[in-house]
């Protein structure tokens, strides 16, 4: 029977591409989304009935929202991909406590709690895969994105540490760090800013969501069977 993969943040551009890619690879998929029901319905129409394990709306910006989500989803998954997240851009001293809490919950506490939810089953079957989508800014840091860079960096540390802890149980944990990707998150950039940014990238262009999805598919596949605790940079050389 095909493997089951839970995709967090499936309605975003990267999550959408990851879902389509994994379905093509034969995975059965369960989807989490926050608000974009129309996009999830469009995605569901592209998934064969036998491979669709349901879509669940959940607000992961609070502990209560994460707990409510965990109460309605199975613990039995062979793979989990964390694609969810949102950007906060501005001067660090202007951030509110609420904005800090939202970034922390979505990018850190949700992966912690969801991983804890699925790990007992993975340990029982002596197999499993967890992949997190972090960011180049989690490695390098970015002005005006201080808190975002912080939680993305913490995701990388989480992956490195957890991979060591669960490797004896046959579970692999890895992280992808995209550079600039052509998603709605970057719509705030003017054409001039976008051209300048792409000019800094050695490959001369932004990445596409499908290219991130391909990297994630690789990390979930048997082709990467000896890869764990790895930071896969998908950034065009930036």
TrEMBL record:
An example Gene Ontology molecular-function term: oxidoreductase activity, acting on the CH-OH group of donors, NAD or NADP as acceptor
Domain of life per record: Bacteria
Any GO BP annotation: fatty acid elongation
Keyword Transport (UniProt): no
CDD domains in the record: SDR_c
UniProt KW keywords: Oxidoreductase
Family affiliation: Belongs to the short-chain dehydrogenases/reductases (SDR) family.
Protein name stated in the entry: Short-chain dehydrogenase/reductase family protein
Organism the protein comes from: Halobacillus halophilus (strain ATCC 35676 / DSM 2266 / JCM 20832 / KCTC 3685 / LMG 17431 / NBRC 102448 / NCIMB 2269)
């Amino acid at each position: 029977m095909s493997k089951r993969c839970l995709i967090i943040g499936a309605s975003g551009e990267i999550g959408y591409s990851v879902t389509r890619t994994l379905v093509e690879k034969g995975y059965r998929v369960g989807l989490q989304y926050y608000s974009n029901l129309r996009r999830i319905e469009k995605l569901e129409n592209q998934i064969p009935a036998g491979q669709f394990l349901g879509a669940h709306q959940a607000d992961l910006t609070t502990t209560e929202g994460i707990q409510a989500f965990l109460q309605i989803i199975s613990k039995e998954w062979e793979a989990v991909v964390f694609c969810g997240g949102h950007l906060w851009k501005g001067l660090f001293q202007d951030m509110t406590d609420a904005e800090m809490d939202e970034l922390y919950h979505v990018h850190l506490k949700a992966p912690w709690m969801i991983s804890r939810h699925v790990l007992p089953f993975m340990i029982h079957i002596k197999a499993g895969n967890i992949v997190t989508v972090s960011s180049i800014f989690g490695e390098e840091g970015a002005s005006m994105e201080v808190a975002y860079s912080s939680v993305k960096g913490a995701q990388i540390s989480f992956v490195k540490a957890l991979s060591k802890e669960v490797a004896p149980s046959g579970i692999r944990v890895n992280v992808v760090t995209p550079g600039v990707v052509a998603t709605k998150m970057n719509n705030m950039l003017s054409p001039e800013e976008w051209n300048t940014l792409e000019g800094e990238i050695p490959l001369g262009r932004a990445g596409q969501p499908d290219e991130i999805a391909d990297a994630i598919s690789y990390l979930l596949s048997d082709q990467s069977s000896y890869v764990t605790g790895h930071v896969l940079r998908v950034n065009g050389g930036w």
